[in-house]
Amino acid sequence: MARELADSPRLRVIATGNNTIGFTGTHLNLPRDRYLRLLRACDVGVFVPRMHEGWSRCAAEAVLAGMPCLIEPVAGLGDLAALSGQPAPDIPRLAQQVRERATTPPEEARAAAAALAQFDSAYFAGAWNTLLNKIT
Question: How confident is the model at residue 34 (pLDDT cuts 50, 70, 90)?
Answer without folding.
Answer: very high
